[in-house]
Write a structure and sequence with these properties.
The chain has about 110 residues and is mostly beta strands. Helices cover about 0% and strands about 45% of the residues. It has no helices and ten strands. The strands form two sheets. Strands 2-10-9-4-5-6 form a six-stranded mixed beta sheet, with no helix packed on it. The protein has a four-stranded antiparallel beta sheet with strand order 1-3-8-7, with no helix packed on it.
Length: about 110
């Protein structure tokens, strides 16, 4: 079954950190570029970070540059998002994806609040 499963979200105080994981199954993730997206209540889903299939290039939304780092371990078929210096405005459901034939997963909730 072709799918991605996100994990690692939770409740964290402002300034805290979380590491999200995206585990792929049913396809070879390392053949494709991947991205992390987020959707806050009442807002459209937005791209947060992208990484090429080899991991050699990354890019980020301006709102997370310098705080978030996307990486991947192709041997584990997994993509990660390290989130530091979290802000309340980072609160959202976070999703990952790669090729268009992969359906969206359930996402993982990140809540930044004191």
């Amino acid at each position: 079954q072709v799918q991605v499963v996100e994990s690692g979200g939770g409740l964290v105080q402002p300034g805290g950190s979380l590491r999200l994981s995206c585990a792929a199954s049913g396809f070879t993730f390392g053949r494709y570029d991947a991205g992390w997206y987020r959707q806050a209540p009442g807002k459209e889903r937005e791209l947060v970070a992208r990484i090429t299939n080899t991991g050699s290039n990354t890019n980020y939304a301006d709102s997370v540059k310098g705080r978030f780092t996307i990486s991947r371990d192709n041997a584990k078929n997994t993509v990660y998002l390290q989130m530091n210096s979290l802000k309340p405005e980072d609160t959202a459901v976070y999703y990952c994806n790669g090729p268009t034939f992969v359906p969206w997963g359930q996402g993982t909730q990140v809540t930044v609040s004191s």
